[in-house]
Amino acid sequence: MKTALRILFLLCTVYQPLCYGQSTHNPPVVVIDPGHGGTDSGAIGTQGVLEKDIVLKVAQEMVRLNWEIHGSALEIYHTRYTDTLISLRNRSGLAKTLKADAYVSLHCNQAQRKGAQGIEVYVTQGREKFMKAPLQLANAIGQDLNQHLGLRYRGVKAANFQVLRETEQVCPSVLVELGFLSNKEEEEYFSERTSITAMALVLLETLNAFFDEENSQ
Prior knowledge:
about 20% strand, alpha/beta, MurNAc-LAA_cat, hydrolase, six-stranded mixed sheet, globular, EC 3.5.1.28, N-acetylmuramoyl-L-alanine amidase, Aminopeptidase
């Protein structure tokens, strides 16, 4: 796995042309859903790292970088801003209320096999007419995290998750498993502040590139 400092240097180089590519007019509305929260910690790492904390930090970094690098080219909302538990219905309901242009639910994985590692990106088991854009976004996220951070990409998977099922007709929606907290190496990676920033930057730039492509069609 690449060192975090090298990652950040490479990202700044690779993504520099994109920093001015997104139009500042009518910015796309993106709902970022940091999973779990409050009494629901989600996955717990071997050293006690909590899923709910990791995904909230990534979401917060996305907002900071969106403002500092892009001048808020995306209009980002969170389903939760603090360590609180939000119902699944309210999470998907936010995307409906805002008529979001994209919905990204952030999670960390866990498995009995300690060697399991890598990124999984989920789309809903929806109707074919709603699948093109989510599949495109999901695959772009997985490939970009793999290419720029060196994280293993386990592919796009379909699942009947409520938050995806209830947002499929609103906007492209995906659920990202950023890695396995049951894997000691990945848990240590999540513990680094620079790693959180790197993941947030890749997710942010992938979204920007996704909307740039959508606008060009």
